Amino acid sequence: MRQLATSRGKFMEIQAASFGRPRESGQSRFGLYKELMAALACCLWSVTLAAQAPAKGSLAPEIARKFARPHDLIDIGGGRKLNLFCMGNGDQTVLFDSGGSDWSVIWALVQPAVAKGARACSYDRAGLGYSDISRMPRSPIQIVEDLHALVQAAKLNTPLILVGHSLGGFNMKLYALTYPGDVAGLVLVDPSEERSGERGRSFLTKNYGAHLAARIELADLDFFPLIMRRYEECAAAARTSNLDPASTQYKRCSDPVREPLGPEIAAERARIQVTSAYQQAQASEISNSVYGDRRGDAAYSALFRKGAMGQKPLIVLTHGIYDPQDPLDAADFALMNQLHRETAALSTLGRQRVVPNTSHNIEIDDPQSIVDAVDEILRELDQRRK
């Protein structure tokens, strides 16, 4: 099985010993784990790269070069511009948001294929990729407000199909329920889940026992302060000068190379991830995320109710790799499936499915599964119009 550490227990040992990066499957309970722990990579960096799953697609250099540069810099007010990259044509527009620490380049294996049947657009959140930084905390609601301003300023054709991965999946879920008129349907790719401890406690206790449920929840409470502190250290180091791309510090403060995206994108990632703007945005997004800041929990509880999206087509994709022999990992995986089923139930037409042989970065391991999900929603919307 394609894992760097095959269990949460081994992962915790590695973390304590060396701040090393965990297995590539992405901890089932929190898909964000993989993204965050990339910033802690040290002694296990080269092993991690070797452990990545082979992608079911490959990126042509000419496509990579298109993604590895800025495109339309849209003025959203307040002296700030966000990078927007659109391709293809069609009556329906599909808009992509990336996971934590990432930007539009991560969609290079998916977006061109979607663009064959729709207008496909990806964008960079503030401070990431080619977008200007923001002085506001990078909380989910601030990200949603930025995105709404972008949709309006760019005059994107609404209602949109939203596609979001990990933290971007939560952003898109929040957008759909705060600006429902802008949204026709959604594909959420291993989305981050709010209130995971509260929502998962009874499920874990019933299915795995109180002792294991408590171990998972309490370990998670320790984990995120550690991660936030690491990112704050990264941001502080980059304030005085760019990080050294050859240093261990850089490896702890950046996402790894995604080999299927090719050398052009790898080089551009290395150029951007050393900068203060990137490091500040990354740290702010983590600290203000649904894992780092729980002040929004009451509002999320009231907003994310079963059926709240009505009959909007909604597909939730869950990564498929986990270790069934490890009780903690098996419980994590089962719980993430449960949380994703609850998110799918926000729509009466929602459905959740596991994508076999994929890590948290489904857009790298099996980009076609996302293309197929978008196409499925496009067909549903087309049938409604007939």
Q: How helix-rich are the residues, as a percent range? A: 40-55%
The 3D shape can be described as globular
Query: SSE order in H/E notation?
Result: HHHHEEEHEHEHEHHHHHHEHEHH
* Class inferred from helices and paired strands: alpha/beta
User: What is the number of helices?
Assistant: 16
Brief description of this entry?
This protein has helices at 8-18, 32-38, 45-51, 61-67, 111-114, 140-153, 167-178, 196-208, 210-240, 248-252, 262-273, 276-287, 297-303, 327-344, 362-365, 367-385; strands spanning 72-77, 80-87, 93-97, 119-123, 160-165, 183-189, 314-319, 350-355. With 386 residues, the chain is α/β, with parallel strands linked by helices. Helix 6 (140-153) crosses helix 7, helix 8 (196-208) packs across helix 14 and helix 9 packs antiparallel against helix 12.
Verbal overview:
This protein is of the alpha/beta class. The chain has 16 helices and 8 strands. It folds into 2 domains: 124 residues, no CATH class; 226 residues, 3-Layer(aba) Sandwich (Rossmann fold), CATH 3.40.50. An 8-stranded mixed beta sheet has the order 1-2-4-3-5-6-7-8, sandwiched between helices. Helix 6 crosses helix 7. The longest helix has 31 residues.
